Automatic annotation (TrEMBL):
<keyword id="KW-0963">Cytoplasm</keyword>
<dbReference type="InterPro" id="IPR028889">
    <property type="entry name" value="USP"/>
</dbReference>
<keyword id="KW-0378">Hydrolase</keyword>
<keyword id="KW-0479">Metal-binding</keyword>
<dbReference type="InterPro" id="IPR001394">
    <property type="entry name" value="Peptidase_C19_UCH"/>
</dbReference>
<dbReference type="GO" id="GO:0046872">
    <property type="term" value="F:metal ion binding"/>
</dbReference>
<dbReference type="GO" id="GO:0048511">
    <property type="term" value="P:rhythmic process"/>
</dbReference>
<dbReference type="GO" id="GO:0048471">
    <property type="term" value="C:perinuclear region of cytoplasm"/>
</dbReference>
<comment type="similarity">
    <text>Belongs to the peptidase C19 family. USP2 subfamily.</text>
</comment>
<keyword id="KW-0833">Ubl conjugation pathway</keyword>
<feature type="domain" description="USP">
    <location>
        <begin position="21"/>
        <end position="353"/>
    </location>
</feature>
<dbReference type="GO" id="GO:0006508">
    <property type="term" value="P:proteolysis"/>
</dbReference>
<dbReference type="GO" id="GO:0016579">
    <property type="term" value="P:protein deubiquitination"/>
</dbReference>
<dbReference type="InterPro" id="IPR038765">
    <property type="entry name" value="Papain-like_cys_pep_sf"/>
</dbReference>
<keyword id="KW-0862">Zinc</keyword>
<dbReference type="InterPro" id="IPR018200">
    <property type="entry name" value="USP_CS"/>
</dbReference>
<protein>
    <recommendedName>
        <fullName>Ubiquitin carboxyl-terminal hydrolase</fullName>
        <ecNumber>3.4.19.12</ecNumber>
    </recommendedName>
</protein>
Length: 439
């Protein structure tokens, strides 16, 4: 019965539900609606809510009593199971948000990226699989290689923060600090939910997303009042600092810093940033060159207007239909992929991609295994026939063919398992080892 239910539910998700439902504006809540539509079109998070998987992860020790995730799941389910396309009021969800965060009380316009950070953190806390966090212990990992240090710091983080939300959205950033006096280099590893990247400025030519990422990861000089204390020199020294990405998340959220941090006069950069819709290769920003982080865009939160006021919308690629749609509060309309890029793009949502050739490799491996299986059966049939007829050379040849057929079946099977695992878990190193274990 359970299998039939899951099968029927999957059929319903794939065929019937479209998620093309708008959200009513409750008074300057377009910032909230924009982020909710982006998260609603995040495939794994959507399915997590639709299949009520969050119920098993509910953390009863959470102070907020799990109401935020429950309201978020209800709203997501309404967006994807609504009998009609009438706009939905997110009033109950907003009420719960305001109970958790007084900052969002009232009808003032808020920042969409700040709301996203609050929401993901709140959802994570309520479904954190760690019910009792271990005490924070200060451990010295400076003697370890950077890769091992990063791995241990990540495991320490997961020992306290472990949820479906973390599985999807959290990565690890590496910060390297080098003393210009003694050459000593120290590294710090921090988890991140999103990356706030500065917008590059060019005299000529268009600004690309990679230009902004290069500006974010470029080596900065810390001098004057910014001089840090060198661990080896025991004194404040001129240092260089650089960021790189140690662990890439499954969902990479990139926040374009369009608004100035100045308290004197608020301003907004309306620079057009050209970002790819697919095959965003971030290998040059990886701490470890063995990583192959390639991402596809699936949602954008847009802001039109200036620093004093404006309006938020969302462009999302529907996971069920594979088409792009514009979400403008209550209005949902189809759009061309060529319209996704604009100078209003504010928060970009990318999903870790599985290389397109892997699907073909898996199919080819399956076909090769089947052909080798038939070849083995043929030579197994030929061996007793040739032996009975006294054709000993042919019999030996049949045995050799059986042996090599079996050997190459194992090889092809190992390749098949490699690509299968890499498709299912492309962001983990485990898949690549199966190839060598099975040969």
């Amino acid at each position: 019965t359970g299998g039939l239910f899951v099968s029927g539910q999957r059929h319903m998700l794939n065929k019937s539900l479209q998620g093309l439902v708008g959200l009513r504006n409750l008074g300057n809540t377009c910032f909230m609606n924009s982020i909710l539509q982006c998260l609603s079109n995040t495939l794994e998070l959507r399915d997590y809510c639709l299949r009520n998987c969050h119920i098993t992860d509910l953390n009863n020790n959470c102070r907020s009593n799990t109401a935020l995730i429950e309201e978020f799941a209800k709203l997501t389910q309404s967006l994807w199971t609504s009998a009609n396309n009438e706009p939905i009021s997110p009033s109950e969800f907003r009420n719960q948000v305001q109970r958790c965060a007084p900052k969002f009380v009232g009808c003032n316009q808020q920042d969409a990226q700040e709301f996203l950070r609050f929401l993901l953190d709140g959802l994570h806390n309520e479904v954190n699989r760690v019910t009792v966090r271990p005490k924070v212990s200060v451990l010295d990992f400076d003697h370890l290689a950077d890769d091992e240090k990063g791995r241990r710091m990540w495991n320490m983080y997961l020992a306290r923060e472990d949820s479906k939300v973390v599985d999807l959205f959290v990565g690890q950033l590496k910060s390297s600090l080098t003393c210009t006096a003694c050459g000593f280099r120290s590294t710090v590893f921090d988890p991140f939910w999103d990356l706030s990247i500065p917008i590059a400025q060019k005299i000529s030519g268009e600004v690309t997303l990679k230009d902004c990422l290069r500006l974010f990861t470029k080596e900065d000089v810390l001098d004057g009042e910014e001089r840090p204390t060198c661990t080896k020199c025991k004194a404040r020294r001129k240092c260089t600092k650089r960021f790189s990405i140690q662990k890439f998340p499954q969902i990479l959220v990139l926040h374009l810093k369009r608004f100035s941090d100045s308290n004197v006069r608020a301003s907004k950069l309306s620079t057009y940033v050209n970002f790819p819709l697919k095959d965003l290769d971030l290998r040059e920003f990886a701490s470890e060159p063995s990583e192959r982080p390639v991402y596809n865009l699936y949602a954008v939160s847009n802001h039109s207007g200036n620093a004093l006021g404006g309006h938020y919308t969302a462009y999302c690629k529907n996971p069920a239909l594979g088409e792009w749609y514009s979400y403008n509060d209550s209005r949902v309309s189809p759009m061309s992929s060529s319209q996704v890029r604009s100078s209003n793009a504010y928060v970009l949502f990318y999903e870790l991609a599985t290389p397109s050739h892997m699907g073909g490799n898996v199919k080819s491996a399956k076909l090769a295994i089947r052909c080798l299986q038939y070849a083995s059966m043929f030579f197994l049939f030929c061996f007793p026939y040739f032996t009975q007829k006294g054709h000993f050379e042919a019999s030996l040849l049949s045995l050799e063919c059986i042996f090599f057929s079996f050997k190459y079946r194992l090889l092809v099977l190992s390749i098949y398992c490699y690509y299968r695992d890499l498709r299912s878990t492309p962001h983990t190193p485990n898949a690549r080892y199966n190839l060598f274990y099975l040969i």
